[in-house]
Design brief:
The complex is a heterodimer. Chain A has 2 domains: 1-91 and 241-261, 2-Layer Sandwich (Nucleotidyltransferase, domain 5), CATH 3.30.420; 94-238, ATPase, nucleotide binding domain (Nucleotidyltransferase, domain 5). In chain A, strand 6 and strand 7 (107-112) form a beta hairpin. Chain A has helices at 35-50, 79-90, 132-142, 149-153, 167-180, 184-206, 222-232, 245-260; strands at residues 2-8, 12-19, 22-30, 59-63, 75-76, 98-102, 107-112, 118-123, 212-215, 236-237. Chain A is built from 8 helices and 10 strands. Helix content of chain A is 41%, strand content 21%. In chain A, the strands form 2 sheets. Chain A has a 5-stranded mixed sheet. By secondary structure, chain B is of the alpha/beta class. Helices cover 51% and strands 10% of the residues of chain B. Chain B has 17 helices and 8 strands. In chain B, the strands form 2 sheets. Chain B has a 4-stranded parallel sheet with strand order 2-1-3-4, with helices on both faces. Chain B has a 4-stranded parallel sheet with strand order 6-5-7-8, with helices on both faces. Classes of the chains: A alpha/beta, B alpha/beta.
Chain lengths: 261, 443
């Protein structure tokens, strides 16, 4: 049985192909202007990796901000449910109770009960505080490639305190810090801590219990993981490819719905 | 002299110095045009819903922008009749009718008039409902609002209280000192005096005394209306609700500006049709939809953004805890005897004690009513909506979420503005919530 999940996020589009409930292919690309076109490109990358053709895929479920835009899928589901489904599968042995999923535009915290069923969730308001966008824009401001933010921040000895969580104000705050001549690593660590504070307050509203699963693209940032662990005082479990957890969940749902038919 | 405001003082605007010149004709026209377009869109969506009762068409026409009500009231005023605009749900409408005046609800659900209010006040973190109501008056964009000869405004939240004050730049306002600490004796006595004060102001406006006979007759009519409204709501307790949450809100909100005698006739027709629908197994909800209770900040037609998203995402709103929904007409006036004193205190109590607006403290009545509704309506989950800047609902949300969690009832909290910009974000949350509720039910 072959199914696929496509996650059309605000910043990246991700696709995952499952064959007999094993991940055999995936693709990731930056969200362009034409979401439908990007989703098709990402899907064909995943097909190439899997050594399959489009006609082999029996069912596709889309998710994410642009889930209704893609013409590939006949069914769609909210990214919260898709993410939860992905973690139920990937984190089954861990016994996950809390998920922190940090996306480009939205950040979600999901609470599981003891059977790993979703019992509560929270999502950030419509501003960029506590999202990947916050990190991305400030990285650009600092002229540091996004991938280097994490390793660089870990060199920090005296992290600065970024007091605002509003991206617009944070940009001017960071600009002022650069003018002051503060070390890049200290500023970056401060940025990570600011995002972590925001995420932690959201998580506390939902209720944090171990084990905490941390996913979404920014979870690849080792400095972000460090900041989250410090702020919440708990260990974060980051999966191998944190950015495709939601797409994996959508592919699983596609497989289940195929079986149900 | 004794500190009272002289009439000449009142004529001098306090918030806007140049009422006529502040906005260009084009701005005013744009506000009217966009308000009209917005309402039409909402009305078209509501009226094209599958399986919708035919009797609802009356309420569409009544509530539409530039609808029949404004025309009727214009004629009424030309013959010397007076119209009173109300701002919150604590104003006894029976009293307005007994004085010979007619009432309209001023609170605005139009998005566009927020902009003129922003120009005057700045953003100020103020709730969009207050801004929209003020904006409507500023640019004269709502024909119904322009019918008001006087405003009755209970001092509920900060926004509404100052809104009433600001409206005085255009129209005389009776500010009602609502006792927000709800502790029995002293509070209800103060409120009774405020109701009697309104009665005097109404008599001054219409030149007519409020007679006991007229008031009792109006109370009986409104009690009849309340009984009918409860019957309509009872039909939503069953597996197949014959009326959507949005349509129910449309019907009850119409009562605030309609001629209540006619409303009663029309709701009786509606009730008959809905009962028929229930007998034949008709339902407006999709099969297996999640049963939702909606609560939080007011949702005034045509701002049905939140309920429309809920009902488009596999949720069925079976009841609500809203001042723009069930609560509006839930309670009758209970008359023990027909002495003047008893009539007025029963009337004042009806508009005071059952009201669970978060401007009150203590407000445990809200929780009691909420849990009661959850049980009787078989609610799966609660959607709590707060308008941006609605501090009181925002604050109570924390308390309510905790109380619900203790009882194992999921709640999602949404915040929204008066525009379409946040629709997709809100939709994602609501869809996930409904998916979660359905998954829980399967278990």
């Amino acid at each position: 049985m072959i199914s696929a999940g496509i996650d059309l996020g605000s910043t990246y589009v991700k696709a995952v192909i499952l064959k007999d409930l094993k991940r055999v292919g995936y693709g990731v690309a930056q969200t362009g202007y034409d979401h439908d076109l990007t989703s098709k490109k990402v899907f064909s990358t995943a097909l190439l990796m899997a050594g399959l053709e489009e006609k082999d895929v029996e069912h596709i479920v889309s998710t994410g901000y642009g889930r209704r835009v893609t013409t590939l899928a006949r069914e769609n589901i909210s990214e919260i449910s898709a993410n939860a489904r992905g973690v139920q599968w990937l984190g089954a042995e861990l016994g996950v109770r809390t998920i922190i999923d940090i996306g480009g535009q939205d950040t979600k915290v999901i609470a599981f009960d003891d059977d790993m069923k979703m019992i509560n969730f929270a999502m950030n308001d419509k501003c960029a505080a506590g999202t990947g966008r916050f990190l991305e824009v400030l990285a650009r401001e600092l002229k540091v490639p996004l991938d280097e933010m994490g390793p660089l921040s870990l060199k920090s000895t005296d992290p600065v305190d970024i007091t605002t969580t509003c991206l617009v104000f944070a940009k001017s705050e960071v600009a002022a810090l650069i003018f002051k001549g503060l070390k890049k690593e200290d500023i970056i660590m401060g940025i990570h801590m600011a995002v972590a504070r925001r995420l932690a307050s959201m998580a506390k509203k939902v209720g944090v219990r171990d084990v905490v699963f941390f996913d979404g693209g920014p979870a690849r940032n080792i400095g972000m993981v460090y900041a989250m662990e410090k702020e919440l005082g708990r260990k974060m479990y980051v999966p191998e490819m944190p950015q495709i957890v939601t797409a994996t969940g959508a592919a699983l749902i596609a497989a289940e719905n195929l079986k149900g038919k | 002299m004794n500190g009272a405001t002289k009439d000449t003082d009142r004529k001098r605007p306090r918030y806007i110095s140049d009422r006529k010149g502040f906005f260009s004709a084009e701005q005013a026209e744009r506000t009217r045009k966009r308000s009209r377009e917005m309402e039409k869109k909402v009305r078209t969506r509501l009226s094209s819903a599958k399986g919708r009762a035919k009797a609802l068409a009356y309420f569409d026409e009544l509530m539409r922008y530039d609808g029949v009500r404004a025309v009727e009231l214009k004629e009424f005023r030309e013959k010397g009749g007076k119209v009173v605009g109300t701002l919150c749900v604590m104003v006894p409408l029976e009293l307005i009718e007994a004085s010979g005046a007619k009432h309209i609800r001023l609170c605005s659900g139009y998005y566009e008039p927020v902009h003129p209010a922003n120009e005057l006040l700045g953003d100020a973190g103020l709730c969009p409902l207050v801004k929209s109501t003020l904006g409507s008056k500023m640019v004269s964009s709502d024909p119904l609002v322009d019918m008001a000869d006087m405003v009755a405004g209970p001092a509920t939240c900060d926004g509404k209280m100052k809104l009433a004050e600001m409206l005085e730049d255009w129209v005389p306002v009776v500010m009602m000192n609502l006792p927000r600490v709800k502790l029995g004796g002293t509070s209800s006595e103060l409120w009774l005096n405020e109701v009697l004060h309104l009665k005097r102001k109404l008599s001054e406006l219409t030149g007519r005394k409020v007679t006991k006979k007229a008031l009792v007759e109006r109370i009986r009519k409104w009690n009849e209306a309340s009984e009918l409204w409860n019957k309509v709501c009872d039909l939503r307790k069953g597996k197949d609700p014959p009326i959507s949450g949005q349509d129910a809100m449309l019907v009850v909100q119409a009562s605030q500006s309609d001629d209540i005698d006619r409303w009663v006739v029309k709701v009786r027709e509606l009730l008959k049709e809905l009962e028929e629908k229930v007998r034949s197994g008709g339902s407006v909800a999709e099969k297996g939809s999640a049963r939702i209770l909606l609560m939080g900040s007011p949702m005034i037609y045509p701002n049905f953004k939140i309920p429309s998203i809920v009902e488009e995402s596999g949720g069925s709103i079976v009841t609500d805890e809203l001042c723009t929904g069930f609560r509006l007409m839930a309670d009758p006036v209970l008359l023990d005897d027909l002495s003047e004193k008893e009539i007025y205190s029963a009337l004042a109590d009806r508009y005071y004690f059952p009201c669970s607006c978060p401007c009150f403290s203590p407000n445990d009545e809200r929780l009691t009513r909420l849990f009661n509704a959850i049980t009787t309506f078989g609610v799966d989950g609660v959607v709590f909506h707060s308008l941006r800047g609605c501090h009181l609902n925002n604050l109570e949300a924390t308390k309510i979420e905790l109380a619900l969690r203790e009882r194992g009832i999921p709640m999602v909290k949404l915040e929204s503005e008066y525009d379409e910009g946040d629709v997709e974000q809100v939709r994602t949350r609501v869809e996930a919530f409904v998916e979660m509720l359905k998954a829980r039910r399967k278990k």
